[in-house]
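User: Please run a holo structure prediction.
Assistant: Happy to. Please share the sequence and the ligand.
User: Here you go; the ligand is adenosine-5'-tetraphosphate.
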Amino acid sequence: MTKPRLYSGIQPSKDSLHIGNYTGALVQWRALQDEYDAFFSIVDLHALTNAAHDPKILADATRGLAAQYIAAGIEPAKSCLYVQSHVSAHSELTWLLNTITGFGEANRMTQFKDKSQRFGADATTVGLFDYPVLMAADILLYDTVIVPVGDDQRQHVELTRDLAERFNSRFGEVFVLPKAQFPEEGARVYDLQNPTAKMSKSAESDAGILWLLDEPSVTAKKIMRAVTDTLGVVRFDWENQPGITNLLSIYTALTGRSEQEAEDEFTGRGYGDFKKTVADAVVAEFEPVRARTLELQADPAELDRLLAANAERAEAIANATLKRAQDAIGLLPRLR
Ligand code: AQP
């Protein structure tokens, strides 16, 4: 029996993932790859919308992200791991979907609002505005049933469903309606220095971000310096203790402990002791992933071969869906 399809991706907008990408996306991906026919894309076209995009580092970051996927447990023998720009159907379907997307609905996307505010008027592009439509094309091309993502992508997956429904009702049944899936813990990790703001690769300061490829001593130092409060109690309370709660949430996501178990473990213990335990857990999780990433990056030709083979597999599926969409929308088929 064929397995239901799963699709997700991460932008190679930096040379390392952060812990939010790890707990929000990769940990779920790893757990779901047996149950689903999984496609994990390195969404480099999305990375072009970033204010800090640098053409000199994008190709290396793309390969490096493939290495991090594998090092974190995505198995190339089971899952299709490929680069978005290697499959041109992503860009082509985006255009078709653009023509049925309302300006108003795209304008309601909170991630666009946040990022455009952070980037400023000069760096806010039509590409950034169109990011959710490209993401819809990514998902719909693969007849995706489930999209495992962090909480920040909830609205984008809802837009994807709306576009699929609209297209199907206007032009005939072409797309499968996907559903987002969020992890129980670690669905939203906040910046350690500003624990009410999402941890983000494109944040201005590095001090609040736990990079997967940071040296262990740097990781530990960032956690020991994380912003907390003066209440002196380790408990889940996003409203009054966002810093402590963020660290607790990272801890439960990585150790599999329940919220209650984690709170009980730290009853009567000071913040320094608590932070040290969280730092040890993060370092223990990241260290083998970091070491394996560095090993894989030492053989770029092998990574490129793997990505090329997987692009072919992805392309066959994506092109078939694109053709259905082109036919349904009424474009004249090209004679072959
Ligand atoms: N802070 C977060 N907590 C939990 N999950 C997160 N994700 C991102 N940040 C957090 C999840 O990681 C996946 C890939 O994200 P992306 O790089 O494609 O885009 P993003 O959501 O815009 O991530 P960043 O880190 O904020 O990147 P930049 O700054 O480059 O845009 C998604 O599943 C996302 O939910």
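Strands lie at 5-10, 37-42, 80-83, 146-148, 179-181.
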